[in-house]
Design a protein that fits this description.
Number of helices: 9
Helix content: over 70%
Strand content: under 5%
Mean pLDDT: 77
Shape: elongated
Structural class: mainly alpha
Low-confidence stretches: none
Length: about 130
């Protein structure tokens, strides 16, 4: 609780001496990447981490290593989930939730642009969900 109070008050010296911020950012980014439908602010946290890097609160090399690894490993787990869940009742339920035609548009993007559509979708939160279905 003291860490949260320190973060809210903006005491950057105390935050800088704590390892909790980087650990929390890493865990949240991993969970957001690994479990696509969790409503976590992964994109916002990356921007926040960039601000903390600019202020010198977070170490550059460690932050890039931890957050990059968390997003990469999370993405790999999301891929494995998609392969495992393909053709199950859960997958059919997710397809039924999507707006009409959105899955066909996402498939069209994948067929037309391939890897580029997956890369670009990482920066557009709702499009990312469509390209991973």
């Amino acid at each position: 609780m003291d860490f949260l109070t320190t973060l809210i008050s903006g005491d950057f010296d105390a935050i800088q001496s704590s390892k909790y911020l980087l650990i929390i950012l890493t865990v949240i980014l991993f969970l957001e990447s690994a479990f696509v439908f969790l409503p976590l602010p992964g994109d916002s946290l990356v921007i926040f981490a960039g601000g903390m890097l600019a202020l010198g609160v977070l170490p550059v090399a460690e932050t890039m290593l931890y957050l990059g690894s968390a997003a990469s490993i999370g993405g790999l787990i999301a891929y494995w989930q998609g392969r495992y869940l393909r053709g199950t009742r859960f997958h059919d339920h997710l397809e039924a939730i999507l707006p009409e035609g959105s899955l066909d548009r996402a498939k069209g993007l994948l067929l037309k642009y391939g890897f580029l559509s997956l890369f670009v979708s990482r920066f557009i939160p709702f499009v990312r969900v469509l390209t991973l279905c």
